[in-house]
Amino acid sequence: MVDALDEADTIVTTILNKSFFWQKASAVPMTERQTQMLNLFLDGYEAKITSKTWATLAKCSKDTAIRDIQDLVDKNILKEDIPGAKRPSYSIVYDAEDLSQFFTEVSISEENGIPYLKAIFKGKKPVSERLLKLDAERFKKGDIPLLNLLSKYCSYIAQSN
User: Fold this and answer.
1) 10 Å Cβ neighbour count for 87?
2) Does residue 99 carry a pLDDT above 80?
3) Could you give the strand order of the β-sheet that contains 103-111, starting from the edge strand earlier in sequence?
4) For an engineered disulfide with 42, which of 18, 64, 78, 119 has Cβ 3.0 to 4.6 Å away?
């Protein structure tokens, strides 16, 4: 039962973050391909957002994928995980605001082999959000900053409070 509740909580978090993202991005003009690709990643597709992944999933050329991604970076919908990296990967910008002002004691830990992002919201409320294994691995390797994960998994908390 605990596992089922944890899974349900993860699904609700994904839906809330996706809803929050689209509320923010609703006025941003995007192509149908960009919208479809963003929805794929917002629904929890477990892969890094790179031009190669984008091109493969969208069935377009790598040059088209690069243009799509750069357009979304220019519109503050995507951001480079590690600016200036040789092979850049990107994260969705769920909230342009720096969420670190609301969360303290942010860390990644494992419970029963499952990675969680743990934090304290506004100095009071403990937060525990289950991470995709890929996100936890990327964090361990230094491929994605903790702030990007905080935005991905906790934007809805900052928005709703």
Assistant:
1) 10
2) yes
3) 103-111, 114-121, 125-130
4) 18
Q: Is residue 46 helix, strand or coil?
A: coil
Taking each helix axis as running N to C, give the angle between helix 32-42 and helix 2-25, from 0 to 180 degrees, rounded to the nearest 10.
150
pTM of the complete model beyond 0.85: no
Give the helix ranges, DSSP H, for 51-132.
Answer: 51-58, 62-74
Question: Can you spell out the DSSP letters for 126-161?
Answer: EEEEEPPHHHHHHHHHTSS-HHHHHHHHHHHHHHH-
> Is 143 exposed, middle or buried, given 0-12, 13-18 or 19+ CB atoms closer than 10 A?
middle
**Nearest-angstrom CA–CA distance, 65 and 58:** 8
Q: Residue 132: which of 34, 64, 31, 42 has the closest Cα?
A: 42
